[in-house]
Specification:
The chain contains 24 helices and 14 strands. It is of the alpha/beta class.
């Protein structure tokens, strides 16, 4: 299968820029994994006692294969827990994987687990201050899981916000191993997301009680599987598919279905087929190259994905020796059309997106427009042309792939590249005398893409909410919520700002948000300049803003400025904040070394910056 479309000039330019910028660091990375490849499979070099420990608990068949044969052994790195709805279905996966591995003549072992927290549970709570750092903990945990060096490939079971990026960073540290990511799928559709948002705003206004709010949330988040809005978790799944780490069409198949199980078994067999013991060796460090990361940024723009990936993709790329910058995001956003309307960028959820054509349709359209590199390595053994399909089961119950329909199933949800929802991606990188920031515009009404108004300054989202409840937020204003960056308190998402800001906007006020913190991947209709860097805790200009200063957030030209005399502003001393309350409790004291070592948002907000230099 082939789709015509010469490569877009901007995509080619940006990719070449990434290649040149990354030349030295990428060469060092590839030399390191090439050295590891020379010693593959590593378990054959282990001492007898080491090997015996590695297969001591296996059954007779697996033990015999591991002991006496050059059998491929598959590591399962799992983020299973049964509190996260997205990860609860993974409870069944190890048995499915072990059985499929035996059928393919190999073996599989659960190499280790990684932590998996739910941002939906910790939103607005102290635990959210561990969320971004959990990504790097997951990377460390992945490294520990694979450190036994008894494996020839790995499958990764993870879906949600920091989990997939952390798994990718860890996998790239073992870049000589093939890696297949195995999703669990979204929960079935429940209460529509726009209705859930409406109830949240009514609760913020005091018009419905807590019982009504809880019932609404329970009808929305109602069963096993990923949340159905297009936040960071589902953006992760899009990204794994467009980067070639999924089997084609795997991203958005519901859990606990025959098709989902068939895809899991097929992923296992494919992982075993691409080890160094066979003829189709596909190490993950070679799959995730500069072209793959450029494709991921294109997919982010085309689908209106989560702003969190302006952090995660930068950190992931660095783990493979690739220097991705916010300028790359910005330049690609100017040429990539928005093809999808999925909540919060529309009313549909990911199940509707899947039914309308899903990832196969998106990839077809982007390839046809020359907006993806088709000549990339994937775990499926093809370029991206092999991903213009959707999986299904034939009459015998066997897994088959069919060509994706050429036309969208619903053009209110998914459109072709010739008739997009808007001609450019829904993301803008901001520059100005306040530093750099990111703004997501795909869910913001065009008439609100430029807001100029006086500042109202707060040092926490709780202080803002108190002002809202006290009816102290009249008139047009730009809320400045600072001391929320990685070094201050771990850069929590500030999702609970959205209902009150939405209420004020619906009342006719012109409002916007400027913060060095993060917003949820589901941030929506209020213009928000987020990830401001340098952050306030490290003396960034955002720490100099005073109540009443005139600010301009211009998502059209990408300007983020404080409109104060430059000499006066330069002479101001940055404000300081008492951050003591963010230090003890809920495990935050254990993360003091992370807060001290973490890099800036535009370098990925990671503690590994020096390790990847």
């Amino acid at each position: 299968m082939h789709v015509n479309g010469s490569l877009n000039a901007r995509l080619g330019e940006v990719t070449e820029r990434i290649v040149k910028r990354s030349q030295e660091s990428r060469a060092r990375y590839l030399a390191r994994i090439d050295a590891a490849i020379e010693n593959t499979p590593p378990r054959q070099r282990l001492g007898c006692a080491n090997q015996a420990h590695g297969f001591a608990a296996c059954g007779p068949t697996d033990k015999a294969r591991l002991r006496d044969q050059p059998t491929p052994n598959l590591a399962v790195v799992t983020a299973y827990n049964d509190m996260l709805s997205a990860h609860q279905p993974y409870e069944r996966f190890p048995d499915l994987i072990r059985t499929a591995a035996r059928e393919a003549g190999g073996t599989a072992q659960v190499a280790g687990g990684v932590p998996a927290m739910c941002d939906g549970v910790t939103q607005g709570e102290a635990g959210m201050e561990l969320s971004l750092f959990s990504r790097d903990v997951i990377a460390l945990s992945t490294a520990v899981a694979l450190s036994h060096q008894t494996f020839d490939a790995a499958v990764f079971l993870g879906i949600c916000d920091k989990i997939v990026p952390g798994l990718v960073i860890g996998a790239l540290s073992f870049g000589h191993l093939p890696a297949v990511f195995v999703p669990g799928g979204p929960m079935t559709s429940g209460l529509p997301n726009d209705e859930k948002s409406r109830i949240r705003q009514l609760y913020a206004e005091g018009k419905v009680d807590r019982a009504t709010l809880l019932e609404s949330e329970s009808q929305s988040y109602h069963g096993p599987g990923t949340c159905t809005f297009y936040g960071t978790a589902n953006t992760n799944q899009m990204m794994m598919e467009i980067m070639g780490l999924h089997l084609p069409g795997a991203a958005f198949v519901n859990p606990n279905t025959p098709l989902r199980d068939a895809l899991t078994r097929a992923a296992t067999k494919r992982a075993l087929a691409i080890t160094a013991l066979g003829n189709d060796y596909t190490p993950v460090g070679r799959v995730l190259d500069e072209k793959a990361f450029a494709n991921a940024v294109v997919g982010l723009h085309a689908t209106g994905g989560s702003t969190n990936h302006t952090l995660h993709l930068v950190a992931m790329a660095a783990a493979g020796g690739i220097r991705l910058t916010w300028d790359d995001f910005s330049d690609l956003a100017e040429v990539v059309p928005l093809l999808a309307r999925v909540y919060p960028n529309g009313k549909a959820d990911v199940n509707h997106f899947q039914a309308a054509g899903g990832m196969g349709f998106v990839i077809r359209e982007l390839l046809g427009a020359g907006l993806l590199h088709r000549d990339v390595r994937t775990v499926w053994g093809s370029g991206l042309d092999g991903y213009i399909v959707e999986p299904g089961l034939d009459a015998a119950g066997d897994l088959v792939w069919r060509e994706t329909a050429a036309q969208t199933g619903d053009d209110a949800i998914l459109r072709g590249a010739a008739t997009p929802f808007q001609p450019t991606g829904g993301l803008k990188v901001m520059h100005g005398n306040l530093g750099r920031a990111v703004v997501k515009t795909s869910a913001v009404a065009p008439e609100r893409h430029v807001i100029e108004a006086p500042a109202k300054v707060f040092h926490s989202q709780e202080a803002f909410q108190e002002a809202f409840k006290a009816k102290a937020l009249g008139g047009d204003f730009i809320a400045v919520i600072r001391f929320q960056g990685p070094a201050a308190n771990g850069m929590p998402e500030l999702h609970k700002l959205m209902p009150p800001l939405g209420v004020l906007q619906d009342r006719g006020q012109r409002v916007a948000l400027v913060t060095d913190g993060r917003m949820s991947g589901a941030s929506g209709k209020v213009l928000s300049a987020i990830h401001v860097t340098p952050e306030a805790a490290r003396g960034g200009a955002i720490a100099k803003i005073l109540d009443g200063d005139l600010l301009r957030v211009d998502a059209v030209t990408g300007v983020l400025d404080v409109l104060v005399d430059s000499d006066e502003f330069a002479a101001r001393r940055p404000a300081e904040a008492d951050l003591a309350s963010s230090r003890p409790g809920v495990g935050r004291e254990l993360f003091a070394p992370f807060r001290a070592a973490v890099g800036a948002a535009d370098s990925g907000g990671t503690v590994f910056a020096e390790a990847f230099a």
